[in-house]
Design goal:
The protein has 358 residues and is mostly helical. Among the domains are: 6-126, no CATH class; 285-358. Helix content is 58%, strand content 6%. Strands 1-2 form a two-stranded antiparallel ribbon. The longest helix is centred in the last third of the chain and has 22 residues, at 336-357.
């Protein structure tokens, strides 16, 4: 019978973390590498060491047995190197072999035992940049194989998924469609998963790609059914795209996805998005919004137009040419409901103007 899952054969169906940690120690002392990797994949021993403050971390057991393979595995897993362990060592100035207690970190412990190869491994690890910074650099190569190898060095399913989720946002930042597809497909990450930014606002992969003006990445995420209505620092994806001066083809796609046109820029709450475009001299963006309204009228989409009016967007009788507007287009297509809707909006606007004159 295969013994790779012996740690599951406890008297308890779900062993607690302390039991699993003791099993890790036993596997290191017995040099059972494969079984250790299987156990570490399900049990987050790094987080356990950080939270529990164990008296003797696993790295010290690996050093004690001069096991370079286990030391490499633990270093790849990013075990904390600042943990310390107290040992009794003989004093140098005593002929009677008197012992004194020393509290050492992993590097100092390897030096004390004079395991030079392990000393070099730990010294090299301490000089590396933080893990996430190294991951960021790996992603810049846009190489899926490198990325996969780097993630799997963590040897823990939970931590691998956490870093893969961060990778999705980095890929959106870089605009790498290849990496976006990799993280969404291979790691089954929810395309609408949210992450809190340093400024305290939440963001999605779609909003991140728009923020960094990664037009193709944003369009790819929309084709993969990313939700453009999720709000970030600048409301939904359409408002965010207008804020960051995204290209018109992305605005066109967002509008065709029926993202909420009645949303408002948080810095210009009294203006609708068309008025915001006029104020900020976004002529092409304003034209794209008007073109969207024209498409709704052409398609006879009364329900959507009515929804926009009911939610405060009243610019539905837009000019198509200098002599033709949305109302005339609706009459030509015999869309009587749309004609009446436009007339009702015009009547309300006319009454408001008369009232203001008084």
């Amino acid at each position: 019978m295969d013994d790779t899952n012996d740690y599951d054969k406890s008297t308890f169906d779900t062993p607690d973390n302390a039991t699993l940690y003791v099993e890790c120690i036993r596997l290191i002392e017995g040099d059972h590498i494969r079984r250790f990797e299987n156990l570490a994949n399900k049990f987050d021993l790094v987080q356990y060491e950080l939270n529990d403050g164990v008296s003797k971390p696993l790295l010290f057991y690996a050093i004690e047995h001069n096991n370079e393979t286990f030391v490499k595995i633990l270093l790849d897993m990013e075990v904390p190197l600042d943990k310390k362990y107290s040992i009794m060592v003989p004093t140098t100035d005593s002929s009677e072999g008197q012992l004194v207690q020393k509290t050492l970190n992993a590097y100092e412990y390897a030096c004390e035992l004079q395991y030079n190869n392990i000393v070099n491994l730990i010294q090299y690890q301490t000089k590396l940049p933080p893990y996430e910074q190294r991951f960021f650099r790996i992603l810049k190569y846009n190489d899926i194989r490198r990325c996969e190898t780097f993630i799997h060095r963590l040897h823990n399913e939970k931590r691998e998924n956490i870093i893969a989720k961060k990778g999705l946002f980095y890929a959106a930042q870089f605009g790498s469609v290849r990496l976006l597809d990799y993280f969404l497909t291979r790691w089954k990450i929810d395309i609408n998963t949210q992450q809190i930014q340093d400024n305290g606002y939440s963001t999605t992969a779609l909003l991140t790609s728009i923020t960094y003006n990664q037009n193709e990445a944003a369009k790819f995420l929309l084709f993969r059914h990313a939700d453009p209505s999720i709000k970030g620092q600048y409301d939904n994806a359409l408002v965010t795209a207008l804020h960051y001066h995204s290209k018109n083809d992305l605005l066109h796609l967002l509008l065709d996805k029926n993202v909420d046109l009645t949303a408002r820029h948080p810095d210009y709450k009294k203006l609708n998005l068309r008025e915001y475009c006029v104020l900020t001299n976004r002529v092409k963006a304003k034209s794209e919004i008007d073109a969207y309204i024209i498409r709704l009228i052409s398609q006879g989409n009364y329900q959507r137009l009515k929804w926009l009016v009911d939610h405060g967007y009243t610019y539905i009788n837009v000019n198509i040419t200098s002599k033709r507007n949305g109302k005339q287009l609706a009459k030509e297509r015999y869309y009587e409901k749309i004609v009446k809707l436009i007339e009702d909006v015009e009547n309300i606007q006319m009454k408001a103007k008369i009232k203001m004159n008084y």
